[in-house]
Design a protein that fits this description.
Blueprint lengths: L2 H17 L4 E2 H10 L7 H13 L3 E6 L7 E6 L1 H27 L5
Antiparallel strand pairs: 1-3, 2-3
Helix pairs in contact: 1-3, 2-3
Length: 110
């Protein structure tokens, strides 16, 4: 199975989860996703997701000056984003449990 296809369906949730405990700027969020095990996530996908989540009212932004380059736009979860993370997390857990059951029932457990 192609991991990039799976990522398309869960990238919003992954980005919201990464921002749950700490704000971040684009490259920092990308790095944290990759460190968490999503090595195949693309730069453009993450930046597009951040723009979409912001436009949907799930994130807020603020700019921090940088001494080593251009200013950085930081993203943070707002109340709507935290609510969406909770809802999407429950949906994901339910879906993952269903898939685990299907795989276990057919002798395909990890």
């Amino acid at each position: 199975m192609d991991t990039t296809q799976l990522l398309k369906g869960v990238l919003d949730l992954a980005v919201l989860a990464v921002l749950r405990d700490a704000d971040g700027y684009g490259y920092d969020i990308l790095r944290r996703l990759r460190e968490a095990g999503l090595e195949e996530v693309g730069d453009a996908s993450v930046y597009g997701t951040l723009r979409r989540l912001f436009a949907a009212g799930l994130l807020t932004t603020y700019v921090v000056p940088s001494e080593s380059g251009p200013h950085r736009k930081y993203y943070s979860l707002n109340a709507a984003g935290r609510d969406q993370l909770t809802r999407s997390g429950k949906l994901w857990r339910s879906f993952a449990t269903t898939m685990d059951t299907l795989l276990d029932d057919r002798g395909m457990a990890a």
